[in-house]
Amino acid sequence: MRTIRLFLILLSFTLSFSIQAQQPKKPNAAEIQLMLQKLNVLGSVLYVAAHPDDENTRVIAYMANEKKFNTAYLSATRGDGGQNLIGSEIRELLGLIRTQELLAARRIDGGQQYFSRANDFGYSKNPEETFEIWDKDQVLEDFVRVYRKHRPDIIITRFPGTGLGGHGHHTASAILAKEAFELAADKKQYPASAEKYGVWQPKRLLFNTHPFFYRRAGIEMDTASLMTLDLGAYNPLLGKSYPEIASLSRSMHKSQGFGSTGSRGTQIEYFDHTAGDRSSDMFDGIDTSWKRVKGGDKVGYHVDNALMHFDPTNPSIIIPDLVQAYKELEKVKDAYWKTIKQQEIKGLIKACTGLYMEVKADQFAYTPGDSMMLSVESINRSAIDMKLVSIKLGDVQSFDVNQQLINNQPFNMDRKYLLDEDAVYSDPYWLREEGSLGMYKVADQNLIGTPENAPALSWIATVEIEGALLEYELPVIYKENSPVDGESYRPLEVTPPVFLNISEKVYVFGNGASKKVDVQVLAGKSGLKGQVSLDIPSGWKVTPENYAFELSDKGAEATFTFELFPPSSASSGEISALANIGGKAYNKSLVRIEYDHIPVQALFPISKAKVVKVELEKRGTNVGYIVGSGDEIPASLEQIGYQVTELSNGDITADKMKNYDAVILGIRAYNTNDRLKFYQEELMEYVKNGGTMIVQYNTSHALVTKDLGPYPLQLSRDRVTVEGAEVRILKPAHQVLNFPNKITNADFEGWVQERGLYFPNEWDEQYEAILSSNDPGEDPKDGGLLVAKYGKGYYIYSGYSWFRELPAGVPGAYRIFTNMISIGKE
Q1: 280 CB burial (10 A radius; 0-12, 13-18, 19+)
Q2: d(CA 767, CA 771)
Q3: Chain centroid to CA 662: how far?
């Protein structure tokens, strides 16, 4: 899979596309038949868990396509706190990738997607720890909101509320699911969502259990008391079994390395009763027919006729039945099912007639107030009488068309549209305002729970079909023909008029020398003229004060170099870039995330960088780096004067590595680089001949070799998740703590997210354990930093989270890591 990495400095508006992005659906006859069957089912299911990848895609695929329920997944978080196997993006950027991976998964398995405002701040060991960082009341409010909006008959949790789910977020999601189950029907609880959606009481709450959870407690799962579903059925309309569909869905979680192979045949899932009506049948007492809503029998009559008359070779034959069903549905007062089924009928009419409608913009990015040239295309590919009555663009511009759409005769027109001066930028809504460690801040209550922004610009087509006026709301899109991929789509963007990209996210000053700070000014529109400057912390100095710039064309760029001088003593703070254009200040940067399996994502974070003056000495200059699953350590080391060379597999020989002062393995290198097992002997020879080898954390699962070092060591799942947990120095006289920098407890202040993860818990006596730490109430974890002399060199294994601390500019992390590289160079 080709990936295009994160651009912190965008050199041009070069286009790269994801084929999936906004490509219109064109259902075939089998899919139309499935849609028609679903129209006759009025049932709803909500699956609830904590993270992207926690959902059971087999259950979602089965519920959405076999039971044909309105099925959705509520993920408490967006997965911001995990690791990234396809790139270097972490934290909020990783959360954005995983959000889109979930949406890609739902497009495959047929579900919908919801989120709460909870931020995945990293691993926690119990729900108490989780609720210390999440605002529990806000997350519970979000759960209740989703319950009332989605109105599930059945809620299914992936984890139990007993703690057997392991991760504290897992247990917390189950606790919140149960509390929300009890509160969603009470109009006094969270009245804002009660007023908007009404109250709702689900029928029952179930736990989708598995023998794994019981093995944690050392007991055997008693299946006799559990509900069961065989999810292994084959769907002939889709040509796949539900486990096969589920594997395709799960394989969208590419940033987590969750590619999955489908299976066939019986597959039993187990469910335990948690709350609500108890029954041996999870669907007991749930009326999924049109009798569920008053007046629905008349709608159902016409849907039954459509099912009876459906001809896959001539789908449009059922249009009269569908139109009559739509007219009867307009009389139904149940707003929830009325809205859902109206959308389904309109989708079916569009599919059965081959109706294609599109409004295409001439560019993919605009700024507020821009003039846009839009191209309208519409075609009816059936014998059904149809007229395009009118088009409404955005919230204000509407015009009559009154164009008869003749079978297979395209209708095209162009139209100018002036984007509103107050148009909202297209960056993800939950990242627009600064939140807390545990929560995103969302000002617009209507956005809470939604997976992503609404389209930057939408249009509404009013179409008359068989005497019925149907409104279709569709996004304005951008597409281009790619020489490789053909018709290629990308989301339309509304952007600031100017971007300011600082070349680095962190500047670390290890001595009194100044550093060059490059600021790229990129034009989001033509005719820009202004000044760019740096805002700096007190005690720091910058020269010059500002530069004048003039960019005549959209997409043009200019880079300006400032010289930044640190104070004489240790200091840290932030610098930010500012552009003044016509008396108005702009401070946004541009980040685009581009991978083949998700649409292009654009963010406009404040243009800032962390600056750190640290008392730092180092020895050595040349470092070799063997990449693992992706991190930003090389760039961090270059900040303090190291020359870092990325080593390919062919470079990993003792002879070629002898010129490096240290060879460092990136995070999870022994999990992701299959060739390392063949190069381990060369690495050990490098150490034996006097080299320094530093291995960062790996997981015990799926190691390519068990022999990670010159002497035996055993990885565990031990981790210290509290970033402020006490760190005890076990070997105060050891050179790694004294040369060339004297390490003290102050060097462990200001750490982010966690201390470390997957520490060894067993090791040979040749290793020296340097540090000890543990979360509150737990036993000491001494395996986070192990150092061994081997031959003339040194081998270091460390599970401390350097991959988080160095990019975050933590001063002590730089001092300790420098000591590791400098070991043996006294």
Answers
A1: exposed
A2: 12
A3: 34
| Alpha carbon separation from 744 to 250, 402, 737, 769, 812 (Å, rounded) | 45, 78, 8, 16, 9
pLDDT of residue 137: 98
* Whole-angstrom distance, CA of residue 144 vs CA of residue 197: 11
Q: How far is CA 532 from the centre of its chain?
A: 33
pLDDT band, residue 400 (cuts 50/70/90): very high
| Rounded Cα distance, 161 and 173, in Å | 8
According to DSSP, residue 380 is labeled: B
Which residues does residue 414 pair with via DSSP β-bridges, in sequence order? 375
- Return the amino acid letter for 255: S
Beta partners for 517?
562
Greater confidence (788 vs 122) lies with 788
Helices (H), 310-389: 319-329, 335-353
> Which of the 8 DSSP states describes residue 418?
E
- CA nearest neighbour of 793 among 655, 681, 689: 689
CA distance 154 to 145: 16
Cross-strand partners of 693: 663, 795
The closest alpha carbon to 508, from 451, 555, 566, 455, belongs to: 566
CA distance 469 to 570: 70
Residue 621 is encoded by which pair of tokens?
């200059």
The phi, psi pair for 83, rounded to 5°, reads -105, 165
The residue with greater pLDDT, 630 or 250, is: 250
Helices of type H across 416-562? none
Cα atoms found within 13 Å of the Cα of residue 420, Cβ hemisphere only: 12
CA 530, CA 528: separation in Å to the nearest integer? Answer: 7
Render pLDDT for 85-115 as a digit per residue (tens, 0 to 9): 888 888 899 999 999 999 999 999 999 999 9
For the record, the structure tokens of 86 come out as 């396809």
Closest residue by Cα to residue 825 from 730, 665, 690, 734: 690
What is the three-class DSSP state of 109? helix
Examine residue 634 and say whether the peptide bond preceding it is cis (omega within 30 degrees of 0): no
For 467, the token pair is 């005497």
| Identity of residue 225 | S
Could you tell me which residues come within 8 angstroms of residue 78 by beta carbon, excluding any fewer than 6 positions away?
A: 52, 95, 96, 98, 99, 115, 119, 120, 430
User: pLDDT tens digits, residue range 730-774?
Assistant: 999 999 999 999 999 999 999 998 999 999 999 999 999 999 999
Q: Which tokens belong to 785? A: 């930093």
Parallel, antiparallel or unpaired: strands 622-626 and 662-665: parallel
Is 23:126 a contact under the CB 8 Å cutoff?
A: no
- Interatomic CA distance for residues 702 and 696, integer angstroms: 16
Contact 22, 48 (CB under 8 A): no
What is the C-alpha R_g of the chain? Answer: 29
* 227-230/204-209 β-pairing: unpaired
| Per-residue buried b or exposed e for 651-665, using 16+ beta carbons within 10 Å of the residue's own CB | bbebeebeebbbbbb
Model pLDDT, residue 22: 59
Q: How far is CA 317 from CA 307, 312, 314, 320, 471, in A?
A: 11, 10, 6, 7, 21
Residue 692's φ and ψ, nearest 5 degrees, are: -115, 125
